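Morning run. Coffee first, then this:
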Amino acid sequence: MTLFEIKKTYLCTSKNRAVRENRRTRNPKQLISKMEKSLCKTLIASLAVAMLTACGTASTVPITGRTQRLMVTDEQVLSLSNQEYNTYMQTAKLSTDATNTAMVKRVGERLANAVVTYLTNNGYANDAQTYSWVFNLVQDASANAFCMPGGKIVVYDGLLPITQTETALAIVLGHEIAHAVAKHSAERMSNQIKQQYGTQVLSGVLAGVGASSTVQSLGNIAIGLGSKVGSAAYSRKQESEADHLGLVFAAMAGYDPSQAVPFWQRMSEATGGGSRSIFSDHPSDAKRIEDIQKWLPEAQKYYTPQVVATSAKASTGTTKSTKKTTSKKK
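And here it is:
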């Protein structure tokens, strides 16, 4: 080996040794740095959730008294809701059945009046003023209905052969109105923000941007309509709460709440346990009926029996309705 080759080998060996030494002394710092970054991200995410929770607005659900902490305002939710509703109605086909359309409007208005009266008399006057009630019957074979935040209500005519009576229709619409009254869409959006978007929202706040873009992006999730109306829209806890409130709302409007039991039995038979309807993510039929029977004594306190009966044609039979009665105050 020449002198040049010996020198080259020594230099390469020294360089490799220096690199190895440098790696041994640098790796722990890198590991710590990575750990610190990971911890920092975790802390920031936790801080974001804590900040969002602290900044949220406390809200109490009527009737049940459950406390919510909402991260979005009524204005934000209503704005998104109106956009989705208008988009949906651009392609929806209104029913040409004047009798059934009138029935839907009659039942809906009766429920709305009873709900607004209750809210106004029980400390929710400001909430009551946010509703702009609209009732539509559309041509669709699905057993479906929905109420948008703000009071935009749509009933699919495929639901009427199952409801059969105005009272059963009131049970369904009471349930859907309950979602709006209990602010379930706002609650779902808030949960999405806290659980999945905390870091992004915090970044927006620190940058002086705010959470408007995140709220907008969540709108399609929480208030999305189209072909997936009602699918997986709410948690089972919210669905159960809507059953509870809806039962009471129907009773307030003068509809016999006990008729909820045979209606849900018909719904179960018609949909194979609810798997093909809006109610597929609701509590099981047996659990729902069990809960309804538990809530019936409470609902009966609000119920004044119907007095005047009139007939209204449904898609597969005859339904009965009555004029509005005065609902009781809790």
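The chain has a mean pLDDT of 75. Good start to the day.
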